[in-house]
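Extended Data, panel c. Modelled sequence:
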Amino acid sequence: MHVARTSGLTVYEHALSAAMHDVVAAFRDNDDAERAGRMAREVMFWLTTAYGRDAVQDLAELLARRIAEAQVTLLPADDPARPEGTPRG
């Protein structure tokens, strides 16, 4: 199998994107907070080992934003907690 050379930043970007997708999906699929928490800890351990604490901080900020967005789009359209103009999930 041929593996293309990529910069460390590209590898980090792909890992971060995959990690966010998996953890957010765990929250959205049956609201599985236990699985999402376990996955987040595993991903953060891997990122800390591979890239350092800054990677963990970046991931935490992006995850918090994505999870908040996912939760808002799951709210009913008439829910007062749902911001105006938010797309329906």
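The chain has one domain: 8-73. This feature is highlighted in the accompanying rendering.
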